[in-house]
């Protein structure tokens, strides 16, 4: 009898390391420890009040209202229209045909959007560029689909711009390597928080269009910014795909709802894929999300941004007081709710196993503070991942203040361990 075993594909996909950190943090918490969760990008708040009430009303309404049956594959038309209207208000420079009702696809979270976009755009063996530092699930999903990855290093400003992408293109041409078929990039970035300026995004879109590279613009942190205005790829490209989510700004992470804005040539492929993979995004979530742009809801959501701003400023100020970490080693945190830090060569001892992974493990075990090591976000062929770490401040100001207090207490012990190992 032949053995039955998991697919080779599944064995090549890495775990989502932040979820491993969360699992251990939850185990410690279940044992009675107080844990300060700064690992996951999950807002402290739940769904907005009006959204939650809309869900309750829908579920307890008339039988026809509460049935929550299938929707069109692309989603409820009233919700898609609200998404169109959002772009018309916020991004007045976008040509109207790029944000028409027919271009909006409501997805099962941004993760569902990634899977639809990747399968619609790329075949096994295609080379797709991702930023290092970047969101790890891009890498993991693309590898599961048989795509090859080009890990493009970010610059000193923690950004991937047209200059970095152009360098990758030229090096591939000179080396006779397969050319890039796609690029996926988030701005504001997870994990760095760095944001492309409008001019930088324009240059990147134009370069991708010239080189025949499909640009997937992950804009799920739009709305969570601190003084800089976000630009959308829809302003500068007719071939780009935009992916967004209700999980971050709209604080609906567990509702598994997102959207895509897709170019005309991908409408039929994505419609077919959505029908077969997901049928439609959760109907109850779609129904409730139509309250996301009510004035009262926006006022509530902007209150969350004010709290994020306080937490961000607190972390950055506290890091200034750690002399071993220079300001240039801290990413700009222009948007989102993360601060990304490079420990530098002096604060790690790789040969002794004292990198950011061990630092984060020790910090969690000793002080009950959960940070995420950079191994999730960096090119696995290098060692930058074990030199960097991410702090999420989505969990509330009180959590951050307690976490940073304990990190300060822990830090001298870490520096001493590294010094002794060297």
Classify the secondary structure makeup into a structural class: alpha/beta
* Percent of residues in beta strands: 5-15%
- Estimate percent helicity: 40-55%
Number of strands: 12
Shape: globular
Distance between the termini: 54 Å
Keywords:
422 residues, 3-stranded antiparallel sheet, globular, single chain, 12 strands, 7-stranded mixed sheet, 14 helices
Question: Would you write up a description of this structure?
Answer:
The model has no long low-confidence stretch (mean pLDDT 95). This protein is of the alpha/beta class and 422 residues long. It has helices at residues 8-11, 17-30, 49-59, 63-66, 77-90, 109-121, 136-144, 162-175, 198-211, 267-277, 283-289, 295-320, 356-367, 397-421, and strands at residues 36-37, 104-107, 127-132, 148-153, 180-186, 214-218, 241-245, 258-261, 338-342, 369-370, 372-373, 388-392. It is built from 14 helices and twelve strands. 45% of the residues are buried.
Short synopsis of the structure:
With 422 residues, the protein is α/β, with parallel strands linked by helices. The protein has 14 helices and twelve strands.
Give the SSE map.
Blueprint (H helix, E strand, L loop, with lengths): L7 H4 L5 H14 L5 E2 L11 H11 L3 H4 L10 H14 L13 E4 L1 H13 L5 E6 L3 H9 L3 E6 L8 H14 L4 E7 L11 H14 L2 E5 L22 E5 L12 E4 L5 H11 L5 H7 L5 H26 L17 E5 L13 H12 L1 E2 L1 E2 L14 E5 L4 H25 L1
Parallel strand pairs: 1-10, 3-4, 3-5, 5-6, 6-7
Antiparallel strand pairs: 2-8, 7-8, 9-12, 11-12
